[in-house]
Amino acid sequence: MTEPRPADQPLVPAVWVDGHPQLEAIAAAVWEQCDRSDSGLCVEDDPRSIAVAALAAVHSAPATPAAVLREADEAETGGAR
Predict the structure, then answer these.
(1) What pTM, to 2 d.p., does this model score?
(2) Furthest-apart CA pair in the chain: how many Å?
(3) pLDDT tens, 5-46?
(4) Distance (Å, rounded) from C-alpha 54 to C-alpha 36?
(5) Measured in Å, how far apart are the chain's first and last C-alpha atoms?
(6) DSSP codes, 16-70
(7) pLDDT tens digits, residue range 37-55?
(8) How many angstroms separate the CA atoms of 36 and 16, rounded?
């Protein structure tokens, strides 16, 4: 279960926050689903494609930072430990 958000903490962060479930999910979806530059360092895609990837990520985003880290670890190791 997620903890309640403090009244002074914005619902949507204005900057990147490591471990934030929705930000991590959006970044991962954009990286995986959108075209990248030849160097692979920059996303170069139609903003509409990025919006679709972001929306899909938000709807499937894990509820906790621990779940984000667990999924990232499973993606890197292929589920093997």
Answers:
(1) 0.48
(2) 44
(3) 566 655 677 788 888 888 888 888 888 878 888 887 888 878
(4) 16
(5) 26
(6) --TT-HHHHHHHHHHHHHS-B-TTSSSB-S-HHHHHHHHHHHHHH--SSHHHHHH
(7) 888 788 887 878 778 877 7
(8) 20
